[in-house]
Design brief:
Largest sheet: none
Distance between the termini: 53 Å
Strand content: under 5%
Order of helices and strands: HHHHH
Radius of gyration: 24 Å
Length: about 140
């Protein structure tokens, strides 16, 4: 794989010299094209995007394809997905799952007790994390 700049091929630039907007699917005449053809400028970018969604391999495009915007986009998503998969795999271990669920339950009971305490005193105390989530919700 050659290490070349993302936009250094002549075919990648618009005749006016501007860099094309890869998110725009409209043609030169303004019509919308239904295909995603041309979204990746090279096979290298397409391969890097595919690798991004394979556990452990997602770090390769993230670290080695800094010049390719599409590869980095997919690599960032792949890393987040990989972290979610790791957390899910941890919950397959009974002791860890039981510990986490027990800890969450203890924190929830403690927050409930604190909420009752402040409500009896007539104070509006915003609980950590829970208060922020309640503010953002549309309840």
């Amino acid at each position: 794989m050659a290490d070349s700049s993302f936009f250094d091929n002549e075919q990648d630039q618009h005749p006016s010299g501007e860099i094309p907007n890869l998110g725009d699917k409209s043609g030169a005449d303004g019509s919308q094209s239904g295909s995603q053809e041309g979204a990746f400028r090279t096979d290298e970018g397409r391969l890097a995007a595919v690798m991004s969604y394979i556990p452990f391999l997602c770090f390769i495009p993230l670290l080695n394809m800094k010049h390719n915007q599409e590869a980095r986009f997919h690599a960032r998503q792949g890393v987040v997905l990989f972290l979610v998969e790791l957390v899910a795999a941890l919950f397959l271990i009974d002791r860890i799952a039981n510990f986490v669920f027990t800890a969450v339950l203890i924190v929830a009971v403690a927050f409930s007790i604190a909420g009752i305490y402040f409500a009896l005193q007539g104070k509006n105390y915003k609980l950590p994390i829970i208060g922020d989530l309640a503010d953002k919700s549309k309840l």
